[in-house]
Amino acid sequence: MNKKPALALFIILLIIALSACRSAQPTPDTQATVNAAIAATGTAQASLQATIDAAVKATVTAAPTPTPSVQYVTMSEEELAALIDQAVAEAITATQQCSTATTTATADGAVTQEEVNTVQVYLVDAEERWLMPKS
After folding, report:
1. Same domain, 82 and 58
2. Among the four residues 23, 31, 87, 128, which has the most C-beta atoms within 10 Å?
3. Is residue 39 part of a domain?
């Protein structure tokens, strides 16, 4: 009977020894994981920036460049004076029409929305004629 406890003790010691010799799972290298994540982030950011730069370049390339359309006209001094006189007369007429519309709109002491709109049309026309006469 002495052999049974010795055999059990031998088996227990053998199991402990074998489990101690068993290969343990390697500890993950956290620094390598962090370095890989940083490198992947940098690559993703560079790729994103390249995509943005390409889109901006395509947009800038696609945008048309405005070209000024200037027409030069040769005319005599008399023709120029006549055009100036005509523009001034049109501006004066537009201003008088605006003044008449304003006087008419406010004559009864009440101004309706329709009267306001009419006065605004005359006012814009008069301002345009004074600032940029039609040729």
Report:
1. no
2. 87
3. yes
16 domain-assigned: no
| DSSP letters for the chain | -THHHHHHHHHHHHHHHHHHHSPPPPPP-HHHHHHHHHHHHHHHHHHHHHHHHHHHHHHHHHSPPP----------HHHHHHHHHHHHHHHHHHHHHHHHHHHHHHTTS---HHHHHHHHHHHHHHHHHHHS---
pLDDT tens digits for range 72-104: 888 899 988 998 898 888 888 888 888 888 888
This prediction's pTM = 0.40
- Residue 51, domain extent: 32-62
Total domains, the chain: 2
